[in-house]
From TrEMBL:
Name of the molecule in the record: TlpA disulfide reductase family protein
Localization, UniProt: Cell envelope
CDD domains (alphabetical): TlpA_like_family
Annotated source species: Streptomyces longisporus
Chain ranges of the Thioredoxin domain: 61-205
PROSITE patterns, alphabetized: PROKAR_LIPOPROTEIN, THIOREDOXIN_1, THIOREDOXIN_2
Keyword Transmembrane: yes
UniProt xrefs under InterPro entries: AhpC/TSA, Thioredoxin-like_sf, Thioredoxin_CS, Thioredoxin_domain, Thioredoxin_ResA/DsbE_sf
Keyword annotations: Cytochrome c-type biogenesis, Disulfide bond, Redox-active center, Signal-anchor, Transmembrane
Keyword Transmembrane: yes
PANTHER family: THIOL:DISULFIDE INTERCHANGE PROTEIN DSBE
Pfam family, one: AhpC-TSA
Length: 207
């Protein structure tokens, strides 16, 4: 190989390394946003949602994005598919046993779940960055959580949400899906019981 050919190969390899490094950084950035107290709107493109003064972003009924496939193994070893709850209002909460804000908000979620489950509201957790289910199960037992959580240790489920939508970008994050499985509201911070109820109420009132 001539000196000129070797010189041409080196930049190509460097470019490939740059692409791979950038892709890895995107995944890492999402996972390292853990325990954030807030976030920004979904990245890139036109967005069809607004953020209220309370930090909760909402999308109008005709401008909502469908939630992606959210199915797989639960922290208790079962199988769960969020799509099976179509027809109900679904509250998705992204959490980790290692996350202090998650511990703070967990009792609020269980209380509201018990109050609203008979009204057609289903809660589902998405447990992330726990390297085994043991800590996640212990967290649920300690906090008295009775609804199921998908086990998503590497954040793959979170990455299925399209950019520019009300996607989860931090831990904790909370999404409210309408009865058609579309994303109606999002919070990127821990929620009080009052804020959680106010986030769910408009979607539950929809006909």
């Amino acid at each position: 190989m001539s000196a000129a050919s070797r010189a041409a190969v080196r930049p190509n390899r460097a470019r490939r390394r740059t692409v791979l490094t950038t892709a890895g950084a995107v995944v890492a950035a999402l996972l390292m946003s853990a325990c954030s107290s807030g976030g920004t709107s979904g990245g890139g493109g036109d967005t069809n949602f607004v953020m209220g003064k309370d930090g909760i972003s909402t999308a109008k009924k005709g401008e909502r994005a469908a939630a992606p496939d959210l199915s797989g193994k639960t922290v208790n070893g079962g199988q769960l598919d969020v799509a099976s709850f179509k027809g109900k209002v679904v509250v998705l909460n992204v959490w980790g046993s290692w996350c202090a804000p998650c511990r703070a908000e967990a009792p609020n979620f269980e209380k509201v779940y018990q109050d609203l489950r008979s009204k057609g509201v289903q809660f589902v957790g998405i447990n992330t960055r726990d390297t085994s289910t043991q800590n996640a199960v212990a967290f649920e037992k300690q906090q008295g959580i009775t609804y199921q959580s998908l086990y998503d240790p590497t954040g793959k489920l979170m990455l299925r949400f399209k950019r520019g939508t009300l996607n989860p970008q931090a831990v904790p994050s909370t999404l409210v899906l309408d009865r058609e499985g579309r994303i109606a509201a999002r919070s990127l911070a821990a929620l009080s019981e009052d804020k959680l109820r106010k986030m769910i109420a408009p979607v539950l009132a929809e006909k």
